[in-house]
């Protein structure tokens, strides 16, 4: 192996010397031919010194690197590196390659600019002259590639000195190096250009602070560390790391121009490694070379962590194109084999100029589904070979256990006075300590920037006799500490391990001995995303303490600073089978915010919890009593606290394990637990009170639960599978490759209305066919308010009557929830939540906008599935559809109760229309300068119309007269996603809610200064007003929220029983506001449409006037 590596290295060295003999008319690169640099070019300057790192250079567009496409800033170091993340202090001076951070290294060495010994300049340049020059360099190296960059990062190390250390090598005195790196990026790819001018590299080694001697510089690229809880090195490529190769950087090339080296560093082709150019320098004479003497075997090895950077490897250069394919050695796993790239033919011509390339592929971490049983995750494994006996395996048992031989093997069991699984035993009743580390990568609320913490300590103390566990995690950043308070189950697993055992039942330690893996998923109801918890328990260490490693990754709802969280006692069922334990439950927690204005608002939230625990049990002892298939963990008290000063998160729980309690929803006699439910094999049994239960078909199946049949895959599912398959990531255990967009499908297989690119953070809306809706793409950190255009499937069962359920007298809030409209009575301004009831069921529709006609007591709505506009009377009867033709995506709707007209917005057709209340006499008012019109309201008394447009490039609120004249922008500054709009006729206040700025604001249209009513809203969608209150629907809370305008405070919230997204909301007034307009009497004297204006009216004709006798006049 070593001899072969030496032979190949020597061959590469000879190959590097050949271009010098073959050099034709192309001369060396002069310093004047470098990209322009210096203060006159707008360059920033790195501080003088040794081992320094620049502040982050924020990029205008993303840099692509290996398989990443989301790098938005870089760091420049003294030591010849451009880093894609901030280098840690301990790696400030060069060490073994690769580093833990992503690195582009045109000349990695210990360089020094102390006391003005050279300068380091850097900038991002968007000028056409620079980007065009970069494009020309790339085209020379990759003539078959069409590449036009939009930006370039230019970094120049000018006349930098070597760090010499105490030895002060006299040969290096006065020697200086000048070189340059340019990172050019387009929307789809990134390239690196290294430039080494003639006489630019006067030294090739520097003194190593680590090795205490002179070491050669390195030209290389590194992806940095990958993985989360257990990190490993990602892919990296070393192109030069010996004196001879470094000396030839200025004399040779891979791009046809001496001293210029080009590399493809970020594109679909670089997932497994950087791709160097392969244009031969100076072979115009067509010289051929014989390589019969050389042995160029490809050596491919997957490295363990300890091997990286120390084992000699020799690799052929990865190349684009070529008819030959890469023959993957058997040491690569099959799934890797499918993703390797083609190589060019192994000819001497293609090798003669090339630097030796050492390519080290990333070993991809696997993402394991929470329900999957992964046998490799256990800490130990019983050997089931019948030849294994206690005679040679006694050491596998605890010193407090006895070993017994059985027909097929041996088993360990704790002796009297000790508890455990025999492999691990502790004294009964003795206090226990658990120590470990916690790592987290958590998105809080709607933030697109994760909170990351590593090497955080976890300590737990357990009082076994009382089943009490006390867990402390420190130090947790304030930005996430309060939001982790509901996650008592992080410490709850320790409570389960040492829960007080009732007769015949076993706690977690008795079953597993504290050696198991646990994977859990927490879904917060009404909040996007979830949190995954991965824990590995490694048994008892040499100090007698249990050890645990914990990883938290995902998204949690934001809990305001200073809040307290209360969790009621709960029970949870643990289901047992061979080596696997599963459980799932739904729990509530109450968040009480800090006192404001004499009150402390409280809200109740819900999360769903499911987990899988895998362990190894001894299967040889048939006489051992079987565990009950179901045990109930009772948590009798829960205490959670975040200490902001100490940044410590504390969980305390009191636990016991025993039978399922009689009379509880988890009663043991429930058919779901005793197997008599009769649900289809592709259905889940959902227990109810006592013996009640329901059968629910699994995702991908439909039916009544008793019989389920597979649903054909949808277009979204087919597209998703095709993309993942092409990328070699069809295995659900593998993470989606960074930079790859894969569409999200909803639970029913349809395109999710909101699609996001996981790498860039951009989100946008799509229609039912997955096409992007123009003007909806939002920047990272903001999610557009997209609407689902596909109604959920109707479940089998008794038909729901579509007739209206008449409303009792009084004022009501009406709000839409997908396929139904609910009513919520108001008493004064108080929501009578216990009296909320369904008003109308239309299950095949997705109702978005609502409006109310106080004259005829009629509610109007828009439906985006058909699409259509419908109405129904509050007095009862069947709903009717009044418009179903020539609609795209009707969303907002408003009623002029005096002029007897309806107005609506259509975000697909980008227009605003008007019609009579029965849907006749339609007329388009506006069809220009609209992108995403949504909310719309009328001021019937004055004849004014108002609407919102949440166009991502230019959000605005506009107004006009009802006849479409006098159109103007009312609000344009400081808007994000203005969704809902309401006009209060009693106060003449126009108010709106904005899901981008998370604010509610108001103004009087005749007095433009606006007032911020309240900030910090979650995700408001629609809004209505009544009295002193605004009432808005919120997508994150799935609630109707009351906001008191007088005190600028949320005062109440109503959460419907069904937890799905809420849309439009309107106030069904018991009586109309007093007043009239010029259309109130006799239709204003108009033959057709009467459209009110301030102090007058306009008579208009509908758009289709063929055969109609219509007169227009003002």
From TrEMBL:
Keyword Cytoplasm carried by entry: no
Nidogen G2 beta-barrel domain spans which residues? 430-667
Q: Where in the cell is it found?
A: Secreted, Extracellular space, Extracellular matrix, Basement membrane
Q: LDL-receptor class B repeats: which residues?
A: 857-899, 900-942, 943-987
Query: NIDO domain: which residues?
Result: 106-268
Q: What would be one Gene Ontology cellular-component term for the protein?
A: basement membrane
Question: Which keywords has UniProt assigned to this entry?
Answer: Basement membrane, Calcium, Cell adhesion, Disulfide bond, EGF-like domain, Extracellular matrix, Glycoprotein, Repeat, Secreted, Signal
Q: What is its main location?
A: secreted
Protein name, please? Nidogen 1
- State the organism named in the record: Gorilla gorilla gorilla
